[in-house]
Amino acid sequence: MRMVTAANEAQREAWRTGGFPEVERVRPGLWSIPVPIPINPLRYVLVYALELPDGVAIVDAGWNTDEAYDGLVGGLRTAGFGIADVRAVLVTHMHPDHYGLAGRVRDESGAWIGLHEADARLIQARYDEARIDSLIEAERGLLMRCGVPPETAVELAGASRMIRNFVEMAEPDRLLGDNERIDLPGWHLQALWTPGHSPGHLCFVEPDRRVLFSGDHVLAKITPAVAVHPQSGRNPLADYLDALAAVRKWDVEEVLPAHEYRFLELAERVDHVMAHHEERLAEIETVLAGGDGVSCWDLATRLTWSRPWETIPTFMRRGANNETLAHLVWLEARDRVRKVPGEPDLWYSR
């Protein structure tokens, strides 16, 4: 247990001080490799390397940039492996910092890529250059219905094109299902479908080693974005909260997330995240109790964020709006708020 706690504290301190954590041996045969993320406050994604008799499998891969690729290669080298030794890339979800480098790794190593079907069926529309305009237009329309000013809606929707530049388009070789056992020699790894942050988000649990690879589903300090957008589920917050309750039941010693640092108290952290969403739902109902109809965008500007609204970067405001919409949809499904469709949609308390 001392080894786990010490490693946890070193990673935690690196996050707290704005540093970059070391490549670390988490358990015998298991490595944590920080891979840099460009122009992003998260700074890095934690890729995990699982030793196999003939190489390694990795959980997630990183953004498709030369800096990220070099970081992954260097981390594998520290663990005693080369990129050609990668046999499998288990992708927790389709976002660029997890999926972006998977195709490049496969090109260099012949590894197979595994992804959940719910994300796999969305990647063409999300990352294929010939189809991305349709996704951008759908996002613009959604933002307009939320009350985002037209010029701002165009700008926010267009950010999807910038993100596409950090992904090598790569279809998965295997579709990984809920509760599926992953065939990795020496491991008893099981996929857990945990939708919400993305429709096909996966966690991976290893009961023998009592670790949970949590991707973005459960993080140590921040709460993952759960938002309504053109590729989300109908009620992603409901999906997310159900999936949180499901992973809470696992008796694991340590949670290995994709960002920040690993931690030991899964149930306590899940309870905290659930309480956070309950507080946000209550805050929204309080604002709507004023009586007049409010657009989602206007509502988002009135809510409590980690910084004042006027200091939130423009692109991040899209996420704030869409997260607010996810809470409104959850409340509407429980008949606690009502929507009057229009340009924009207006929301009222019951």
Notes on the structure:
It is a single chain. The protein is of the alpha/beta class and 350 residues long. The protein has a domain at 2-126 and 163-275: Metallo-beta-lactamase, Chain A (4-Layer Sandwich), CATH 3.60.15.10. 40% of the residues lie in helices and 18% in strands. It is built from 12 helices and 13 strands. It has helices at 2-16, 66-78, 96-99, 102-109, 117-120, 123-127, 132-145, 150-164, 236-248, 266-288, 296-302, 314-333; strands at 24-27, 30-36, 44-52, 55-59, 86-90, 112-115, 174-175, 190-193, 202-206, 211-215, 254-257, 337-340, 346-349. The strands form 3 sheets. Strands 1-2-3-4-5-6-7 form a 7-stranded mixed β-sheet. Strand 2 and strand 3 form a beta hairpin. Helix 7 (132-145) packs antiparallel against helix 8. Mean pLDDT is 94; it is low at 1-7.
Give a quick precis of the structure.
The protein has 350 residues and is of the alpha/beta class.
